[in-house]
Write a structure and sequence with these properties.
The complex is a heterodimer of chains A (140) and B (931). By secondary structure, chain A is mainly α. Helix content of chain A is 52%, strand content 1%. The C terminus of chain A is likely disordered. Classes of the chains: A mainly alpha (140), B mainly alpha (931).
Chain lengths: 140, 931
Amino acid sequence: MSVLLAITAGVLFAAGLYMMLRRSLVKILVGLLLLSYAVNLLLFSSGTLTPGLPPILPSDGGLGLAASYADPVPQALILTAIVISFGLTAFAVVLLRQTYQTIGVDDLDELRNTDGLSEPDHSLDLDEEIIERCEEEECP
Amino acid sequence: MLIWIGAGFVLALFAPWIHQLLKEKTGWILGLFPAGIFFYLLAQSRLPSLTISHPWIPSLGLELSIRLDGLALLMGLLVSGIGALILVYGGAYLHGHPYLGRFYAKILLFMSAMLGVVVSDNGLLLFIFWELTSISSFLLIGFEHEQPSARAAAWQALLVTGGGGLAMLAGFIMLSQITGSWSIQVWLNSAALVQSSPMAGAIFWLILAGAATKSAQFPFHFWLPNAMAAPTPVSAYLHSATMVKAGVYLLARLLPVLGGLVIWKTVLPVLGMVTFLASMFLMLAQHDLKRILAYSTTGALGLMVVLIGLCNKIAVEAFVVFLLAHGLYKGALFLVAGGIDHAVGSRDVRKLGNLARTMPITAATSIPAALSMAGVIPFLGFIGKELVYESGLSIGNNMILMVALILANAIMVAGALWVGWLPFFRRKAQLPVEHGPSTDEVGNLLHENSPGFWLPPVLLSILTIGFGVIPRMIQPLMGSAAQSILNESFSFKLSLWHGFNPALFLSIITLVFGVFIYFAYGWLEPHMQHLFYRLRRFGPSEGYDRAIDHLKRLAAWQTRLIQSGYLRRYVLMIVVSTVLLSAIAFLAVAPSLMKLPSRQPEPLRFYDVILVGIIITAAILVLRARSRLATIALLGTIGYSIALIYLFYSAPDLAMVQFAIETLTVILFVVVISRLPKFTRISSTPKRALDILVAVMGGIVMTLLMLMITSNPADSQLASYYLANAYPAANGRNVVNVTLVDFRGLDTLGEISVLVIAALGVLALLSLRSSHSSAPSPDNLPPSGKLGSRLIHGSIILPVAARYLMPLLLVFSVFLLLRGHNEAGGGFVGGLVAAAAFMLYGIAVSPQAALRLLPIQPRILMTLGLLISAISVSLPLFFGLPLMTGMWLSNPLPVLGKLGTPVLFDFGVYLAVIGVTLLILLSLAREEVQK
């Protein structure tokens, strides 16, 4: 399973990186989320994967199977990470929302400075634009 | 001596205020300080060499070591004596100038630094003072900093001398490596060791670079004439009498160490002679008094380098005498030139004349200085010239050298007469050129300058005559200086008349030739100027300009490349460099760490495989998703699947939090979705391919990293400690929760602070009223009052069910909070579930209704939560216990169980999470509804 998990985390990380390299504004958010999933899995695997033995001590006060419980420390760290990344995601969403509301452009290559976007400077474009706008029906 | 230098720096600091206080008399009063140093040094000359040493940074070898030997005394007397005169002169010359206070400060700064250079006995200390002189020279050249020419000249000087200084430091470091010490005394005594080392050549060239740049040797000479943009007192002090001598001082100081090298004896004379001749020829093309003097200074420095290069006794004697003579006459001539400039308003030699009548005192001081420069008996310069010729004659194969010397000296004679004789005694003058302060309306000069102008040069000229006529006065000084250069003792006799020897004969030839050139000025100057104008393209000055230009263009290019402004470029570069570095790290450790997990792999269960399959499929589909809603749904799928993985692998708290957070994230996206742009495909295929490649490499790095981590499990004592102590010490059986609120409570406190900050950020962003909202709403749906009805389009199941579900959920959230310490649950999950409950109501009914249901506003709720957590953490302080000690009530309460500060902390977390989440989500929802 750890091998499978490693592959999964790799795929998620790759997907997240790919999304972060896109030009569309919203895809950055998606990339961020995918990256945080991958990293949480990474942290999770640092405590060895133990099925069926949550680190909750039995009610008689003894230690029970303390030696073979799952490692509680990475779990605590991941919990912190998940909650904080939720805060980060919320902030990023609102930031992108306000940016789009104010500037009205969703192409990152045009967001090179905040001096007002009067004329996009096409002389420095890195690639030709192939623009396919979504059809009205496909993108609600 | 150290105290004098330190006092100099302090005085420099206060000089502007002293100037404000004393106004007119500042120059005279401040001049007393260097005069004091001068007399102190005179007193020291009777005694044997003074050596003091204090450690400063022993680990670097830096010590405050001072050594006052003959050479240091000579230079020190020059620096302090002329310094005193310059302060007086500067007060008169710059009278009324707004920056005069700064002038005093900078001059004093320079003087202290220069004194430091000549007396320091530690290589590192010498370097520090050396650079200080470069900096103060920069400040002084750029004195009139509103003039672009002054700024450019100052930069040029700084860059050239600074670069040389760095080379010198490298040479010093090598010397310290070979000899094992930074003390110059040690270096001087280790000559054999240094000269036999393979680094000797490198050391020579590096130190030569330092000396050549500072003393304006060819090809670094171009900064000195340009430095004439500085006011005349500065030119007189720094760029003729003292600072530029630092380079030849360095060579003289290190002569015992490096003098035996063959390259020393060949390169230095050649370099010096080339400089001397080139400067003299360049001087022929000048018509500005100061520039003539500047080129003659570089020429004289070249001559001094020649003498040091010859490296025998007579040459060293010539060196010390010439050093002093040059300092005296060049300083005087510069001051005279400044006086002329001040009086008449022009420095153009082609037009000046007839000034002797109205400026008698200035004329009277100018003549001895000029004649000393020309090497006429009975001035000190004559003795110097004689000794120079004698040292030239003392070596074999000297034909070329002698011819060059005669030629160059002849031009020097002419230069002396142009500057010192011509302006005063030429009959036909082309004045008035401009009005000066002492001219009448027609432009005729009225009167002599004020004493501040002529007193300093008078003093210098008196010394020039006096030392020339009675050289025995300076014999001990010269003798000890020469002896300290050669690091051996010998007897030294200085006399005015050496008899009818070949040197005298050569001097006479030089004089005649020189006078001849003097009269040929009218023809020479325009032709030479034309010649050098044509040659300028190949000169070092042009080379400097081009180098600076290229440097600027390189800087602009690389900035455009790396800081292009495109966010994606930055991300790409970050990812690529991380991947590369990780790849290198992997390759370095790969054999030892890359192995498959050593533990017996558990049997793979089919739902593990299914879950992994779901996640991977969803991730790949996200990349291809065309619509925003599809993306959100896929992300939710991934999130829930990961939560299931957590659940299957013994992390119930984690799984619950993940479920809740995922739900809230989906809600967040859905609420905002109408305000975000639609997806478009913009990038071209090659770009896409590159991105895919980079992303895949990143993924591989991540996978390898995880494999490495799992196959090399860290032996953590932490887990066993927490498991063993959770119940006895922290009264909790849910070890994860105990870790969060007790063992690692500070992390959690930081975490909720971050949440609060994020929520405040969201609030701030949302309250920005943008002046132009140019984005159209991509969804062409009419705004309506209820969010719920917009999304649900009229179903009544959700609003009705929500009304019943919500209280249940709230009870459940409290249940989770209370049981969290001993079973799966906790403040985080509880808070998230409660927030979800309110959001459910908000979606089903309306956000305002949900807000109305809250007894306390989310803003206050989250602050309250943070406050409660902070109090629970700091409460032990009031009882004298360390921060965050868990304090428990002894008897457990019936429903709530054992109560203590960690439980309170968890409660604070609960409130904070509810407050933050509702603040963000409800504010966003309300924005949607209001639009």
